[in-house]
Amino acid sequence: MLQLMITPLCASMVILLIHAYFGLHVIQREVIFVDLALAQIAALGGTVAFLLGSQPGSASAYVWSFGFTLLGALIFSWTRLEDSPVPQEALIGITYVVASAAVILVSSFTAEGAEHLQETLTGSLIWVTWPTVFKIAALYAAVGLFHFFLRRKFLAISFHPEQERHIHLWDFIFYATFGIVITAAVQIAGVLMVFSSLVIPAVVAFFYVRTFRAAILVAFATGTVAVFLGLAVSFSMDLTTGPVIVCAFGFVLLVALLFRKRFGVVLKEGDRRGLTVRGFEI
Predict the structure, then answer these.
(1) Cα 22 from Cα 30, distance rounded (Å)
(2) 257 contact partners, CB below 8 Å, separation of at least 6
């Protein structure tokens, strides 16, 4: 059993490593469903590619998925309006619903539509291969290095947007690189696990620490526990891997909530919600 677990475990850890970072940005920005919306947009692009004859996981499917995600990045970067009477989260939610409906409609035109629809939600993590893991690891390493070298800009637009002059341009760059990560992850892990691995570890980190550097460590540790637990239960009980890992993330969050008031962060009157970044350093 251990041999069968190694490949999906490594794939999950590669995904988690960069999702822990992006998740903190998402929670700090209070655009919780932007990753779910981008994941669904990527799934829509993959569904269109599937309808046109591309195989899931192929280069052409990735190009279609990323093309759609890039369009989503453009929408989200230009709808960040401080003077808007409607919060951006509402527009993100609308985008998610429309993309979800479009995936269902496009899937209905294919004979394997139901199976493809399920795969977009739960992924095919159990069947991931080592070449795919290495490709994703290389892609994520490139995105990670890009964000590390430009960390001051990316931290500024999430934590102190009032200090950034070209906010829409940097927002687009942020969402475009985020889209690269999302597009690759959706093809193997599915929309549900992508959302869970981004948001739940970050939420736990916000419950227990106040600095960005510490939050990355807590988020990665939390996600690691959930992934190991989910894979162990999935293989021991012969259950579908993706949904079990998502449930494991939910279980870890529940445990974190139970101990938050005793060991976590409790805001006092006048405290500002969110993390602090010292000198824009990671």
Answers:
(1) 12
(2) 207
Please tell me the CATH code under which domain 2-263 is placed.
1.10.3470.10
Helical segments of 150-211, H only: 151-159, 167-208
Whether the CB-CB separation of 263 and 214 falls below 8 Å is answered with no
| Percentages of the chain per state (helix, strand, coil), in multiples of 5 | 80, 0, 20
User: Is 82 in a helix, a strand, or coil?
Assistant: coil
Q: How far is CA 280 from the centre of its chain?
A: 23
pLDDT at residue number 282: 46
| pLDDT tens-digit map of 94-130 | 998 999 999 889 888 877 767 767 778 887 888 899 9
Q: What is the pTM of this model?
A: 0.88
Q: Do residues 100 and 34 touch, judged by C-beta distance below 8 A?
A: no
Answer positive or negative: Cα dihedral of 282, 187, 49, 44. Answer: negative
Tell me which residue of 154, 137, 112, 157 sits closest to 21, measured CA to CA: 154
Q: Is 249 helix (H, G, I), strand (E, B) or coil?
A: helix
Burial (CB count within 10 angstroms: exposed 0-12, middle 13-18, buried 19+), residue 232: middle
Terminal C-alpha separation, the chain: 38
Look at 57 and 146; give whichever has higher pLDDT. Answer: 146
Amino acid letter for position 101: A
- Mean pLDDT in residue range 50-63: 83
Sketch the domain layout of the chain as residue ranges.
2-263
Q: Tokens representing 39? A: 């994941």
